[in-house]
């Protein structure tokens, strides 16, 4: 088993390195790199991760390869954003690439669901013969003498997920129908786990410890009456436990016309899925690490524009001030456009005098007062500040992202190619490019060029 696991690890690392070769990263944009990394990290390792609990060193090595592919090749390959942040979901302020550890735990967690769902399968019978009827999924875990088996890692993953604050080990249970397929003491059919753990004294007093719910009651008309089977009458603390048990199950009423079914209490409506479990693990891990704000992702613009807007919000684009912070030797940190102030991210995209003139034209075009805006956030918040409708607000955010990306592109042309277009040419170009991007990516939008020029909010 150890040898096969080592061979799988080395073959997995080879496949990742082959798929994420650096020459590919040099030939594609940020959006392309994001797609490549997300695809490779989320698919190549599926078979291995569904069977083995990958070592942390292997996970770090594989994710490091993805970070190298995503990394910018200019300026000696500077890392602009922590790779752990890139891996975070949109809800946790990342780019939704996904952590391999979370994927590994989600895939192994599926075996917990299969163990309960396929209770009559041969593999489940084998597991029960080795690890007990519950497969060590409830209780203290796997014995030390079996501690290095594949199943022991699967059991351990459930405990690790519990440790993040996701109550996974007790989330798989039964929804009671007629009670003919649910064990009263040993199955999880109420919040808080199985009853044998919660009411240990009564469980020891029970005659038939594997009794079904149907064995512990009878239908009286449309009602249900609980019937007990004790070796002797409860006494002492057992009486108190019995009263607590009766109170605990008072709200449960089996139904004749409905069969019992397996449910996942963390998502009762949709049921278990690896994607849902992985999302819960990512969210829990994000809460513990104190992640940033939610990442806004617009399908109306290309991925490279979305990623640029995300990096701009974090102030992680190669403006001259940011390059100087990284110790890169520059002739000057002054803005290449106005040569009056240092080029920070906000200055390059909003506050430069030449950029301000451009934003003034855009403000008149959109009938918004942009003169007072001195940061990226102020630009993006204009829609809500001026009470735009839902579609208009979304359209302004989409357009502002496109314009910011184009402003940065023009800045790079000036720095590297000595190209300096006139203000009117830039404004007309921004109108045209934003119109093309929005209309090509939203086929249902009925938008014509003349309406776009005169009233972009109302189209």
From TrEMBL:
A Pfam family that the UniProt record links to this protein: zf-RVT
InterPro entries, alphabetized: RVT-Znf (IPR026960)
Domain (Reverse transcriptase zinc-binding) ranges: 294-359
PANTHER family for the chain: REVERSE TRANSCRIPTASE ZINC-BINDING DOMAIN-CONTAINING PROTEIN-RELATED-RELATED (PTHR33116), RNA-DIRECTED DNA POLYMERASE (PTHR33116:SF77)
Annotated protein name in UniProt: Reverse transcriptase zinc-binding domain-containing protein
Native source species: Centaurea solstitialis (yellow star-thistle)
Taxonomic path: Eukaryota, Viridiplantae, Streptophyta, Embryophyta, Tracheophyta
